Amino acid sequence: MPEKNPEKNLDNTTTIIDDTHKLEKEYVDDSVEEGSIASAVPLREPPDGGWGWFVVLGSFCGFFATQGYGYSWGVFFDEYNANVYPGQLTELSWIGSLWYCLCNITGPFYIYMASKIDDRYLLAGSCILSSLAMMLASITNSVWQLYITQGVMSGIGASLAWFSCMRGPQQWFSKRRGLAVGITLAASGVGGLSFSYMAGACFETIGYRWALRIIGFMQLALLSVAAATCWRLNPPPKNVPIVDIQDMKNKKFLILFFIHFIGNFAFYIPSGFVPSYARYLGLDAFTRSNLSAIMSAVMFVGKISVGFVSDYVGRFNMAVICGLMACVAHLAVWLTATSAGSMWAFVVLYGIFGGGYISMITAVIVEVVGLERVESGTGWAFFAWCFGGLLGQPLASAIVDSGSDGENYQGAVIFAGCLFFAGACASATLRIVQGGWKIIKKV
After folding, report:
1. Has residue 385 got a pLDDT over 70?
2. Interior angle at CA 239, CA 235 and CA 244, nearest 5
3. So what's the pLDDT on residue 404?
4. What's the pLDDT at 380?
5. One-letter-per-residue 3-state SS of the chain
6. 352-365: pLDDT as tens digits
7. Topology of domain 45-435, CATH
8. What is the pLDDT of residues 218-255, one digit of tens each?
9. Where do the domains of the chain lie?
């Protein structure tokens, strides 16, 4: 029997270990291309709870503060047009359009920014910029100054909060993702309700300037909560390009990008024009502000309930249903509305299905691009909103002004309703690509 040599065996073992480490290093180096957002570090699985609920709370506060203002813009729009800068409807519409455009402008660059700066610092920047914008807007004396404050500054501040608050619920939740995203987006409805009521009360008592200041203080407090609680589930990716276009090679994502692109041309038209249309019908000031507020409140309920139901019947299915129902709400209800009752019916229907539509086309992003690319996919999807945000309301205003009496609201309603129908058709196409032609199937 040959004599054992422990030293020789030890040398062989060391050689095997070194070779194994060398192979592992080569595999990691080859699997992660320079400029790719992929990471060799394994991602943590969504816990579907725990600290994730605090992230949802912080995201809720962030959306309440920023998107809530966006949902209440129609109340300010009506007040400016009627009492502050009368007869400048189209010029005033650009204030909201600048905000709606810029609140998503950082989308393509967000993942690069997030790789350099923690989400909580981005939210802190949003806190300062958003509240300062409202304070400065309260001391303006012309429309162009509102472009800078309520439009540009507030819009960029909202953009810093949007993506930080949006990706948290998508990362921390899987089975309950529809519910988590629905709760987060529902904050815009609650914020719109609160800001609309508050602004309407201020208009009647202490004036629009104090309404802006109060919103500024509220944004300061709410965004501070968001900055304290919106922790990341996974570390930021490395070697991130300034603009990553990998998602544009995904055919399903291109369809989703188109859905987001056309959706924002229509989505904010009701929030911007319902109060002025109610004035056109001769409804009193209380009803005008309440229509906008109730629409926001119903969106709160609609986004959560639709998100909850979608976890059982399929998020792609619900996107199609909500898009079709939003179209019906415009063309069958708002188009024929001549009284307060018919307007109440519209804001309830649109609150449920319009809000639900936005929740669903957001919730499916991660299913289209995958968890590892959710930040990039979300950034590009909502960057598509910039175009509709910038041009949607001015186009609707131009259609309204094109009438013989300068009040062709029916044309603007048809414009929005047809866009929702196109979005529903595109959502149906994406649903078929994702899950096939079988109708009775959870997709």
Report:
1. yes
2. 100
3. 65
4. 87
5. CCCCCHHHHHHHHHHHHHHHHHHHHHHHHHHCCCCCCCCCCCCCCCCCCCCHHHHHHHHHHHHHHHHHHHHHHHHHHHHHHHHHCCCCHHHHHHHHHHHHHHCCCCHHHHHHHHHHCCHHHHHHHHHHHHHHHHHHHCCCCCHHHHHHHHHHHHHHHHHHHHHHHHHHHHHHCCCCHHHHHHHHHHHHHHHHHHHHHHHHHHHHCCCHHHHHHHHHHHHHHHHHHHHHHCCCCCCCCCCCCCCCCHHHHCHHHHHHHHHHHHHHHHHCHHHHHHHHHHHHCCCCHHHHHHHHHHHHHHHHHHHHHHHHHHHHHCHHHHHHHHHHHHHHHHHHHHCCCCCHHHHHHHHHHHHHHHHHHHHHHHHCHHHHHCHHHHHHHHHHHHHCHHHHHHHHHHHHHHHHHCCCCCCCHHHHHHHHHHHHHHHHHHHHHHHHHHHCCCCCCCC
6. 998 889 888 888 88
7. Growth Hormone; Chain: A; (1.20.1250)
8. 999 999 999 988 877 777 767 777 777 888 888 999 99
9. 45-435
Provide the residue type at 284 as one letter.
D
* Residue closest to 314 by CA, chosen among 423, 421, 431, 422: 431
Q: Which residue type does 172 have? A: W
> Is the pLDDT reported for residue 17 higher than 80?
no
